[in-house]
Every structure is written in structure tokens, then in C-alpha cells.
Design goal:
- The protein has one domain (about 1-145): 3-Layer(aba) Sandwich (Aminopeptidase).
- Helix content is about 30%, strand content about 25%.
- The protein has helices at about 10-20, 35-45, 75-80, 100-115, 130-135, and strands at about 1-5, 50-55, 65-75, 80-90, 120.
- The protein has a 5-stranded mixed sheet with strand order 1-2-3-4-5, sandwiched between helices.
- The relative contact order is 0.14.
- The model has no long low-confidence stretch (mean pLDDT about 90).
Amino acid sequence: MKIRRATEADLPAIVSILAGDTLGKTREDDSPVMSDAYQRAFRIISGEKNQTILVAETEEGEITGTLQLTFIQYLTYKGGLRAQAEAVFVKSNHRGKGIGTMLMKEAEKISRERGAHLIQLTTDKRRPDAKRFYEKLGYTASHEGMKLHFKDLKPGS
């Protein structure tokens, strides 16, 4: 198993992993004709120095997991750099094999090399197994995250 930066050729496998997830089934589309939105987003992410997408790949070339890593410059922490791990997913039939741990450890390594003072993430409250996974890696639930989905707002609200 190796962890590497994703290429555009990996995109169908990445989208399939996202869509194969319990929550992803309600928000992703891995139909044979891939949405231009995925390709556009991948190109934007790949073109930015503060973002990268990692994949876990078997020796046979199967993409089994993915993680998006974003670096955010802050004024706090004396102008510190913070790493944000998002979209950490492993194919259901490959879970429990250490792939998620390998992805997170690579993200931590890259973050340290870039000089980040911390790496953070959020996990959906409907994913208790994910929370336990991150806790085993040493992450703590130190903050309460909040979101506002704009699609739910009426104009002018």
C-alpha cells in the first residue's frame, strides 16, 4: 500500500469512494458520466499550493482511500499555519486494514514539513466510528463545530 498525491486519472475512483459512503450516497454522484463539477474542483484543488488530495493505492493499482489536505494561514498563533484534513474516506471493503491511519499519518507528515502548528478536522456526529478512529490517533474533540448550509437559506435571510 502506498500513499501518494492524487492525479486527475484517480478522480473516478475517488468519487466512487465518496459516493459509496453512507452519507455520500445522499450528496455524491458516481454515475458513468462524471460531472464536470468534480473535474473542475479537482483542477482547482490541484492548482493551489495550499491544497492537495492524497490517495491510498494497492500494489495492484486499486485506489482504496482518499483525504483532502488544506493549509490555512492564520493571524492567531503568531501568524501560524494550520492544516485541515477533510474528506477522509476508505472503501468499506478495505476498512480495518490501517489505510485510514496511513492517510492521516501522511497528512500529519506533510503538515509538519510545511510548518503547520496543528492539524484539525471535523467529523459528522452521525459517524461515531470515525470519532473513535480519530481519538485512537490522538485527536481530541476540543471545539464544537458549527455550519450554515446556504442552500437552506432564503434570499435576504
